[in-house]
Design goal:
There is one protein chain. The protein is 51% helix and 12% strand. It is an alpha/beta fold. The longest helix is centred in the C-terminal third of the chain and has 39 residues. The two termini are 48 Å apart. The protein is elongated. The structure holds adenosine-5'-triphosphate (ATP). The site of adenosine-5'-triphosphate has 12 residues, from β4 and α1.
Length: 687
């Protein structure tokens, strides 16, 4: 359908422009968000190294302005502090920082800011087991308000995928996408709620030159839509460099250039640094920053006043003042004024999306866009038929404080449900997690059944039967513990990204992963126990079987929780070594190797912590307690013919299975809470 726009250039009549989009490539269905300008003043970042007195200053009182509608590159030599600056601006790193960061002239409220921004990290943290479409569905389910209809969500997904050139690949599994496609998917996922500020850490790393160009074109397109796009980049090619609107260059933690990319060479020339002909300006500024043309850093830092000066007019930026607002209306009014300042970007967005869409081809400087922009630049009032809704929908989140809406777009229950469904889908698709585990339980079940075949009621084989009971504990413990230690740390980077970008709360995520694996673990455990119980001819009484099964189930749940604690607290290498080593004392004090009374008094407390002891005791009581009849004996003398003798030998004659079950439940709860606390600590400490 043709779009008709009236450019009512007052005093000069009106101009009618008819635009026929080549294909449906608009982002009209995204939620409307306000444009955001970000400024930072005298930003200093220090870290402590080694001894407490050894403080390293990474950012040295840098200042800068990052405007909406512009694509900003943060450049500098390796180790200059680019990632550190980006991490501070995103709010990813908060401790050790001094200075002020303002958003549209007001002191940044980190909580509100994080709702307006997204951070796309270098290694596209994506779940490989989801298709593009499924990943997008999860993003819309979590990032758009629950009130959004399914049809509207579908439309958002459709639009974004078409715009980013991913619609052809909507059924492709994320793990099979190319590097460039993965990058685009990472952007697509965050674009769902249309954040006005987007941060990218090295968006072009690992991409070939054509994909780099496409990626930067896409970022430029997003910037032209009124968004503030900031990315760190390593020495781009001259072609890529030209595409950036704004360049912020760091050298040794200080700002050596801030301004348009187009004026870089001219400005450096005015400082006595002539860029050789046919030399890439991006390479030149890096070389200058590295000191290849002498020590110019101090001179450049002074000339630019460490980022306080605007290269456009060589003057310091106007002071940021925060007006004293008396009421909410005054704040809204002020924000609307700021909004109106960004009319240019709104016009650009409208024209861009109506004409060529955001298809990443970089062809943005079309005639209409230039016309509209130049008219505004001249100061002539220009009325464009636009979404008036945008102006009314000033985001109170910018203001922070009382008017600030909820922390997440959806309720914790919705987050729990969406993450649970996603985790169940992963489990179904994860070969190791599902089929290999099932196979192992069945195989080992039959192996043990064959080894201890029919010994359950044989008075001469009670010691072997106790060995069987202990082996059950060992097997169930290791299988459920190691799978969690191996799989959970792999989830961490995605969790860090999604949690930081406000997809869900840690609580909802944790509840979902806690619940998701329990049914599978339970099914595997039941299959194993049924096989071994029948093959080894344990007492054929339902209540004994139930107690035996409950003890085994609880052991596998507890061991899984141990795996979660270890997986949350450390990486795979350490976890795989430490968890089995840490389990050794619990195995030794389980009551199988040494009976309780034989353990030295000062070491007995360990048995109370040994979950293996409770599990082993539970299965032993289920087998030999509750007035079990004497066992069969096919030899002249069977010492353990009477089950009471076995219990006496194990010091379990007074033991109570209810206490064992209660202790296992308590340990389970304590471990699950500890795993949550470790996870929370880990999320904070990685930042
Ligand atoms: N936690 C830390 N402890 C000690 N030094 C740190 C810490 N974090 C960063 N640094 C140092 O700060 C400097 C800047 O690091 P940063 O990662 O920001 O550099 P960069 O410009 O992004 O480099 P690159 O382009 O190589 O990624 C480096 O010298 C780095 O070693």
């Amino acid at each position: 359908m043709d779009n008709v726009y009236i450019l009512n250039n007052l005093g000069k009549g009106s101009l009618k422009v008819t635009i026929t989009p080549a294909q449906h490539k608009t982002l009209t269905h995204l939620p409307k968000r306000p444009p955001v300008d970000l400024a930072f003043t005298d930003l200093t970042y220090k870290v402590q190294e080694g001894r407490k007195s050894n403080v390293k200053t990474i950012l040295k009182s840098v200042s800068g302005r990052l405007r909406s509608g512009e694509l900003t590159a943060i450049m500098g030599p390796s180790g200059a502090g680019k990632s550190t600056l980006l991490n501070i601006l995103t709010g990813y790193r908060t401790s050790g920082m001094e200075g002020s960061i303002t958003v549209n002239g007001m002191e940044r409220n980190l909580s509100s800011f994080r709702k307006l921004s997204c951070y796309i990290m270098q290694d596209n943290q994506l779940h490989g087991n989801l298709s593009v479409e499924e990943a997008m569905s999860v993003a819309t389910a979590l990032k758009l308000p629950s009130a959004t209809t399914t049809a509207a969500k579908e439309e958002v997904i459709q639009e974004i995928l078409e715009t980013l050139g991913l619609s052809e690949h909507h059924k492709t599994m994320t793990s099979n996408l190319s590097g460039g496609q993965k990058k685009r998917l990472s952007i697509a996922l965050e674009l769902v709620n249309n954040p006005p500020i987007m941060f990218f850490d090295e968006p072009t790393s690992g991409l070939d030159s054509s994909s780099c160009f496409q990626c930067i074109s896409l970022l430029k397109t997003l910037a032209r839509g009124g968004r503030t796009i900031i990315c760190t980049i390593h020495q781009p090619s001259a072609r890529l460099f030209e595409m950036f609107d704004h360049l912020y260059t760091l050298a040794d933690g200080q700002c050596v250039y801030q301004g348009s990319t187009g004026r870089l060479v001219e400005w450096l020339g005015s400082e006595g640094l002539q860029c050789p002909a046919y030399h890439n300006p991006a390479s030149f500024i890096i070389e200058v920053s590295c000191g290849e043309y002498g020590d110019n850093t101090g001179k450049l830092v002074r000339a630019i006043n460490n980022g306080k000066n605007d290269i456009r007019n060589g003057m310091p930026f106007p002071e940021v003042t925060i007006p004293p607002y008396n009421n909410k209306e005054a704040m809204e009014e002020s924000l609307k004024k700021q909004w109106n300042k960004n009319d240019l970007s709104q016009v650009q967005e409208k024209f861009k999306e109506a004409t060529n869409g955001t298809n990443g081809n970089g062809n943005l400087q079309n005639g209409i866009l230039q016309y509209a922009a130049s008219e505004i630049a001249k100061g002539d009032p220009l009325v464009v038929q636009m979404d008036t809704e945008k102006q009314d929908n000033v985001e109170m989140a910018l203001l922070g404080g009382e008017g600030s809406p909820k922390r997440y777009a959806t309720s914790e229950l919705t987050q729990f449900w969406v993450v649970l469904k996603r985790t169940l889908l992963f489990s179904r698709r994860d070969w190791t997690l599902m089929y290999l585990r099932l196979f192992a339980h069945i195989l080992v079940g039959f192996l043990i059944g064959a080894l201890y075949y029919n010994i359950g009621n044989d008075g001469s084989k009670v010691l072997s039967n106790l060995g069987f009971l202990f082996f059950n504990m060992l097997f169930l413990m290791y299988t459920s513990m190691t799978i969690t230690i191996l799989s959970f740390p792999l989830e961490m980077p995605v969790l860090v990204k999604e949690h930081f970008n406000r997809w869900y709360s840690l609580r909802s995520y944790y509840m979902a992963i806690t619940v998701s694996d329990i049914p599978f673990q339970a099914i595997f455990c039941v299959i194993y126990v049924v096989i071994v119980y029948l093959l080894t001819s344990q007492p054929a009484e339902w209540f004994r079987f139930a107690m035996f099964l409950i003890s085994c189930l609880l052991i596998s749940f507890v061991a899984q929780s141990v795996g979660l604690v270890v997986g949350a607290a450390m990486n795979v290498q350490n976890g795989v070594f430490l968890a089995p080593v840490m389990s050794v004392p619990f195995l030794l004090f389980s009551g199988f190797f040494v009976s309780f009374n034989a353990i030295p008094v000062y070491l007995r407390w360990i048995t109370y912590l040994s979950y293996i002891r409770y599990g082993f005791e539970g299965t032993a009581l289920a087998t030999y307690s509750f007035n079990r009849k004497k066992l069969d004996c096919h030899q002249t003398y069977c010492h353990f013919k009477n089950p009471v003798t076995t219990l006496e030998e194990l010091d379990m004659e007074d033991a109570d299975i209810t206490l064992d079950i209660a202790a296992l439940c308590l340990i389970f709860l304590v471990l699950r809470i500890s795993a949550f606390l470790f996870l929370r600590w880990k999320l904070k400490s990685t930042r």
